[in-house]
Amino acid sequence: MSALLSGVGLTAFGKQPGPDSVEWQCAAADLALADAGLDPLEIDTVITGYSTVSPHLMPANVFAERFGLRPATAFGMNVGGATGLAMLANAARLVEAKSATHVLVVAGENRATGQSREASTRTLAQVGHPTYEVPLGANIPAYYALLASQYLWSHGLGPEALAELPVQMRAHASRRLGAQFQKPITVADVLASKPIAEPLRLLDCCPVSDGGAAFVISRAATSDRSLTIAGTGQAHRHQHLSALEPGSTGAGTAAQRALAEADVTWEDVDVFGIYDSFSITLALLVEELGLVPPGRAGAYVRAGAFEVDGRFPTNTHGGLMSYGHCGVGGGMAHLVEVATQLRHERGASQVAGCDVGYVHADGGVLSAHVGVVLRRRGR
To answer: How confident is the model at residue 17 (pLDDT cuts 50, 70, 90)?
Structure first.
């Protein structure tokens, strides 16, 4: 028996003053339950992601109370940006073990308007080593900038190689309602944008957003739009940048575990959702996964491989770099988009013949990896 993804919910992302983190979670949950065709009282398990703006010790209970649920089981999770897919993987296991019937997975934050830039930077920097990294003033962009510098140097590339990736993400977002940034950009725009941490510039980085996302994972289909969660895989090889092994972060391991469980190969996958907190994040991930050769991510993007009609249609909603990043919900948006593609509901941006999708998320500094394979039922 495989667990089923019966409902998804995704709000618009951006600077949207008013709702707090739990209210964004409630908004996304409403959308997911309506999508699944379920009454809230049919939910027996709630799993929520963390919020840096409202760091409750018992986030699932706080959400359930606000939303009016009394689940038999409720708990929160935190593995950084990989949290959304890790929650889905745990929900699938609960359903497969018959310990749950309908699991609501939810995340959301008012990170753009409910927290100062300084507070957000300081909080997120704590993924660094408390002795060797954080005291030196490092932050998330700085950690990824070090990876970008190493990548460009080792492959003899200039920053324009990475600039191709945010250009592609923005092109996708220009055709996706709800994306934070939709105005098309060029490589020249990326290279001319404000320096953040050499060699990364503003347009190499994802924005901070308000928004929410939610999934419903069920034991049985609630409609003919329910999708099979065919395989999941995880790998946790390190936490801190100082312990990272370039080219072997665990991304490939997590992906292969998910593919093996689903009994598919990359040749079977039609659409991709790959975590893209920075241009370098996406480049490193697609190369370690084995989708493109080392050092060639930018060249493949330039050749159209990541377009809707390319060999590897990727982040067709615009990804974190353009749809936006509201914390845990940002990584969940990739799965919502892949699910929408597999349901053949993306209109002019629909990937043709789309039956199998792969979604990948990472947390920390390429520290925690989760891969998920989704499949249209009967395929």
So the answer is: very high
Domain range for 368 is: 4-114+208-376
> Which H or E run includes 337?
helix 328-342
User: Alpha carbon of 140 to those of 201, 328, 329: distances in Å?
Assistant: 13, 16, 18
Residue 21 half-sphere exposure toward CB, CA atoms < 13 A: 24
Task: Give the CATH number of the domain where residue 65 resides.
Answer: 3.40.47.10
Pair 12, 211: CB distance under 8 Å: yes
In a domain, residue 138? The reply is no
The domain tally of the chain equals 1
Q: Has residue 184 been placed in a domain?
A: no
- Alpha-carbon distance of 208 to 117, in angstroms, equals 9
Q: Is 374:359 a contact under the CB 8 Å cutoff?
A: yes
363: nearest Cα among 236, 220, 231? 236
CA–CA distance, 247 with 238 (Å, rounded to integer): 13
Query: How many other CB atoms are found less than 10 A from the CB of residue 182?
Result: 17
For residue 195, whether the previous peptide bond is cis, meaning omega lies within 30 degrees of 0, is no
Per-residue pLDDT tens over the stretch 269-310: 999 999 999 999 999 999 999 999 999 999 999 999 999 999
Q: What is the pTM of this model?
A: 0.97
End-to-end Cα separation, the chain, in angstroms: 15
